[in-house]
Structure of AntA/AntB antirepressor domain-containing protein:
Amino acid sequence: MTKTDADGVSADVGAATLTPSGADGLISVFAADIGGTLRPAVDARELHQFLGSKQDFSSWIKRRFREYGFVEGDDYASITKFSDGCKRDKNNRVIDDKGLVVPIEYHLKLDVAKELAMVEKNAKAAARRYFIGCESRLLAQLLAQAGQIRPAAPPLDAGEGFGILDDL
């Protein structure tokens, strides 16, 4: 998995390439392996920070997964950076060589990020429109790279979740 950055580094997705979206000021969209398939995704911690939730990240994300029935491997991937000197404690948490718990990172499909943005119930919930726009731009890019006619991308506030990238 390669995460795109603001310097213009892009991620390979088969024959298609995702261009960075973090440069437009919101949340970076990158290619992540979710359930064995590369999909456009966002970092859950970055989304949590952007949405301005007052809850600590670990409690927030676990509660959201439970409440909305998100399934690991279908809706998100969890990543623990297990390096030399790490071990598991009696609660199966990964502990580094300094005795600190290694945080779990979560990569969320765009549909999941849209839903979490909608249910946050604050002014930043408008991030849903941003993710819809990301989907539209990515689809247009993929079609153009495949030599198909490039459709006009809808404006960022158009429609509810299209689900257009579910089959990628």
The chain has one domain: 11-145. The longest strand covers residues 37-43. The chain has four helices and eight strands.
